[in-house]
């Protein structure tokens, strides 16, 4: 066996004979030449086998290969500007590991439900491979940003005794003889961590028991949630701008091939850099009313409203200062206008909706107790959270970014179900 490499490493071995462990993605033949489309998880490459350059046994072995058969392929790496990866393999030998029989996902068109039922196989396709590769790079960019900015990663619990936002959209379970819920946010715990470490972030799965079937919603999704002590509302927005810009620019730099596979127009992505435009909730309401939307002050925005607002800008846009009554209990009211809070939602362009929600948090213990009463939250369950204001309270802020919506926006993918390896939807818990 020649030197064993991966497809991603092929460019370092031009002119050399190498062996790659692969699966057959597809193939075609022109009689005396077989073109093998190969994949190994790190990329895709074409293997070209010429009949009079290999033994009859090797030729017949290649002819017998079916879609998704596994094999070791040996050949000489050649540079080819026309090839998607820039290289191809002049095949000299194949060693068949397994001949796959009746692979269900053929090159023809399949319905979404069929593909979702076979998600464990669908992720092998070029489009899904590109999507999930970009997801990986976004995750890496998130960690890189916070490491560079000296944040500490803290892991909040997934099983919690209370809700972070006082909602009823929680998955209930029993924790021995107590009630418990799957976390819908790690934010409250991250506030405690921020009082210990200054700047912290969590990154993990969250769960929302909302019976929603929209293209923007998942039952289980991943959130990154930073919290920062001694940071006010204005500083919070600037951090978000630099954070999102870092993610987008990282993808543009490192994922050109994947973006090409997805046929993603990157024109608007290339414009993503600070500062982002901002409008207040009041201004957004007037804008929507002028456009004929039937919405009143004090109502939250739906998906069509967010899309109409985003269409006015070519970058993500902050909508700030929402009414206090429609936002979470922990958000700090504007001292100059208590009926609105020091918060912002970041709306992505092109109809992808909210990707970040954030705010300055209440730091006054008396006001927080009052909000407990207004929201009818049990004092005993939140006593530890109140302690954060009783023992060294400081101005502090944070935000949460939804990973799958961010991946959908950057990749130009319509439905978030394709941006996570195994999506959990309202009527789907398989595979």
From TrEMBL:
Domain Aminoacyl-transfer RNA synthetases class-II family profile, chain residue ranges per copy: 132-431
Coiled-coil intervals: none
EC number of the protein: 6.1.1.22
One of the record's GO molecular function terms: catalytic activity, acting on a protein
Primary subcellular site in the record, as a coarse category: cytoplasm
Entry's localization field: Cytoplasm
PROSITE patterns: AA_TRNA_LIGASE_II (PS50862)
Protein name (database record): Asparagine--tRNA ligase
Name of the coding gene: asnS
């Amino acid at each position: 066996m020649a030197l064993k490499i991966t497809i991603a490493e092929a460019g370092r071995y031009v002119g050399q004979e190498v062996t790659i462990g692969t699966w057959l993605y597809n193939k075609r033949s022109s009689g005396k030449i077989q073109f093998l489309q190969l994949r190994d998880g790190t990329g895709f490459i074409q293997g070209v086998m010429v009949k009079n350059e290999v033994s009859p046994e090797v030729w017949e072995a290649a002819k017998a290969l079916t879609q998704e058969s596994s094999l070791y392929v040996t050949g000489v790496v050649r540079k080819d500007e026309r090839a998607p990866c820039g290289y191809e393999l002049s095949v000299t030998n194949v060693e068949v590991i397994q001949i796959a029989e009746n692979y269900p996902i053929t090159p023809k068109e399949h319905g979404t439900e069929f593909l979702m039922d076979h998600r464990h196989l669908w992720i092998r396709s070029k489009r899904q491979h590109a999507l999930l590769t970009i997801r990986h790079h976004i995750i890496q960019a998130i960690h890189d940003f916070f490491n560079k900015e000296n944040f500490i990663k803290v892991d909040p619990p997934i099983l919690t005794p209370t809700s972070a936002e006082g909602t009823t959209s929680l998955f209930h379970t029993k924790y021995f003889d107590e009630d418990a819920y799957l976390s819908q946010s790690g934010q409250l715990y991250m506030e405690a961590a921020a009082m210990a470490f200054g700047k912290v972030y969590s990154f993990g799965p969250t769960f929302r028991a909302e019976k929603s079937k929209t293209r923007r919603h998942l039952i289980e999704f991943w959130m990154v949630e930073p919290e920062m002590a001694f940071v006010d509302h204005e500083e919070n927005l600037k951090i978000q701008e630099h954070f999102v810009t870092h993610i987008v620019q990282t993808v543009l730099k490192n994922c050109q091939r994947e973006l090409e596979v997805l046929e993603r127009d990157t024109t608007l992505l290339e414009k993503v850099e600070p500062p982002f435009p901002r409008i207040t909730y009041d201004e957004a309401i007037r804008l929507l009313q002028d456009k004929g939307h039937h919405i009143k002050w004090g109502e939250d925005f739906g998906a069509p409203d967010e899309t109409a607002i985003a269409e006015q800008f070519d970058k993500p846009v902050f909508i700030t200062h929402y009414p206090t009554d429609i936002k979470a209990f922990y958000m700090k009211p504007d001292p100059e206008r208590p009926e609105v809070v020091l918060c912002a939602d970041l709306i992505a362009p092109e109809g992808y909706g909210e990707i970040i929600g954030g705010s300055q948090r209440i730091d006054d213990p008396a006001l927080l107790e009052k909000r407990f009463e207004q929201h009818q939250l049990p004092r005993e369950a939140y006593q530890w959270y109140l302690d954060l204001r009783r023992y060294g309270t400081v101005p502090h802020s944070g935000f949460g970014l939804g990973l799958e919506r961010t991946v959908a926006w950057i990749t130009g993918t319509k439905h978030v179900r394709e941006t996570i390896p195994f999506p959990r939807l309202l009527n789907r818990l398989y595979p």
